[in-house]
Design goal:
The protein contains 2 helices and 15 strands. The protein is mostly beta strands. It has 2 domains: about 45 residues, no CATH class; about 200 residues, Jelly Rolls.
């Protein structure tokens, strides 16, 4: 490869940028720093929110491409397996270490098990949300606190609560593929949603800034369009914590609460590789004209 210096500006000929066109990698939780399940409770409908979902390591890493049911998570059929979800019951908490520091002015994506209720009864058609959109189970909720890894004299992590210390409701669904085949099917006296594995993953590094109302009355294809390539989830703005970086995130549910937290994955987008290459080229262009460059 040849390089030229013209008028003090480095000009590159035939620079291969193939490796720089990726949409960026994902920074996810890599370690469990602490976990207390809490006290299971029974809802007014008699459903117990325990069911063996006390495996803290299920919250680590990215969302999975297969729910163990032969399909990827989508707005109507979320993750459900105990190997992929962690529950925090009242009086419990989970504290996670991010694989890499997240910018204090960045965002954190939280993926849960929200499932939008289908109202279509046309067999073979795509499932459709009601207006307003509703869900099959209560929203996950938790108090979310973040820290930069600093500890107090007692050895505990110093954490700053988001949202003024009030619980945050996680109402957005997850969508792993952008081209799954999702349809309404029927059984004896009931209808259900059937899905399959897609081939084109959505981008879980791309924040989705909508809410449940964004999906009012929409079919699956319309939801994919609304997500605009994002894998969904609820994205939290970290700026209010006033930290330069975030290394630790905690989800806690107060004792006596009548809600719980269900956690699939926590993710933060990293700088786009193309942006880094661009910064490198700008830096080289600003170097003195007499500088000698050799590109490998």
């Amino acid at each position: 490869m040849k390089d030229f210096i013209f008028g003090g500006i480095l000009c590159l000929s035939a620079v291969p940028l193939m490796a720089a066109t990726a949409s960026g990698s994902t920074d996810t939780a890599s370690a469990v720093l602490g976990y207390q399940f809490g006290t299971p409770y029974t809802s007014s409908s008699g459903y117990s929110y325990y069911n063996g979902y006390d495996n803290a390591s299920a919250a680590l890493g990215p969302i999975q491409s297969d729910t163990s049911g032969g399909y990827g998570p989508d707005p109507f059929l979320p993750a459900w397996d105990t190997s992929q979800l962690t529950i925090v019951a009242p009086g419990g908490s989970i504290t996670l270490q991010m694989a890499q520091p997240v910018s204090g002015n960045g965002m954190l994506g939280v993926f849960t098990d929200v499932a939008i209720n289908n109202v279509s009864t046309t067999v073979g058609s795509e499932p459709q949300a009601s207006t307003p959109a509703s869900t099959l189970s209560p929203f996950p909720e938790a108090i979310v606190s973040v820290g930069d890894g600093s500890k107090n004299a007692g050895g505990d992590y110093i954490l700053v609560p988001l949202n003024g210390g009030n619980p945050i409701t996680f109402e957005n669904p997850t969508n792993y593929y952008t081209n799954s085949l999702v349809s309404v099917q029927s059984g004896p006296g009931y209808y259900y949603v059937q899905s399959s594995l897609g081939t084109q993953p959505a981008d879980w590094t791309k924040p989705f800034l909508g809410n449940l109302a964004s999906f009012n009355g929409e079919t699956y294809s319309q939801m994919v369009a609304t997500l605009d390539g994002s894998a969904g989830g609820t994205w939290l703005n970290l700026a209010s914590a006033g930290l330069s970086q975030v290394d630790v995130v905690q989800f806690s549910v107060p004792t006596g609460a009548t809600y719980h937290m269900t956690l699939d994955s926590v993710a933060a987008p990293e700088p786009n590789a193309l942006e880094l290459v661009g910064l490198g080229i700008v830096a080289m262009a600003l170097m003195p004209r007499r500088a000698r460059w050799r590109l490998l």
